[in-house]
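Hello,

I think I submitted the magnesium ion job twice by accident. Can you confirm which output corresponds to this input? Input:
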Amino acid sequence: MKLLELFGRLPAVIMYDLDGTLVDSVPDLAWSIDQMLTQLGMPAAGEDKVRLWVGNGVPVMVKRALADDMDGDQPGRVDEALFEKGYALFREAYSASCGKFSDVYPGVVEFLTAMQAQGVKQAVVTNKSGNFSAQLLEEKGLTQFFFQVIGGDTLPEKKPHPLPLLHVVEQCNVSVEDALMVGDSKNDVIAAKAAGIRVIGLPYGYNHGQPIETAEPDWVVSDLSELI
Ligand SMILES: O=C(O)COP(=O)(O)O
Ligand SMILES: [Mg+2]
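Support: Only one job matched these inputs. Its output is below.
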């Protein structure tokens, strides 16, 4: 269904999640996690596991990988010294690979271009750290579409907290009813609902192995080209 029919009008601002929404970034992330693990003498994890672990920011993903477990970020699960070592190795590997093996999803450039042409403000609200987000967007030629990029470490809170979304809305000086969030995971849906912002869920990304419908977004569309 087209955006106008769905939302009732054009939103003043659209916020997008990054990993699993705009870019299929797991190939780079998994490559970097496996570099880290093998340099630590641990077995590689592979893309299927990393796809489940992504979504709550890099430090959490690194802890899950070091524990080889989704609950690896819980207190006491991963030794602090091991984490510091792993985190540095991951950042080194990801700085070199960020964007190299990852693709922009179908429909993304077309939709961003169409919204830009209509004067809709666009921002990225991701849990990925700000520097890697900027690097990935630049590598994929997407930087020009966004007036703001909020990373997981930009503000005191990250998704599923509503703060980063409310921050963008405030910057645009619009009301939450005129804003729209687009994401692939429950973190995006929970954050949007807590902010009073309507949210579109995309089924092709990473929602910790669960269908996006289980997070109950306002709408699910197969990909962004459906909305043009
Ligand atoms: O780095 C992550 O955990 C993923 O971030 P995103 O899905 O919020 O873009
Ligand atoms: Mg995501």
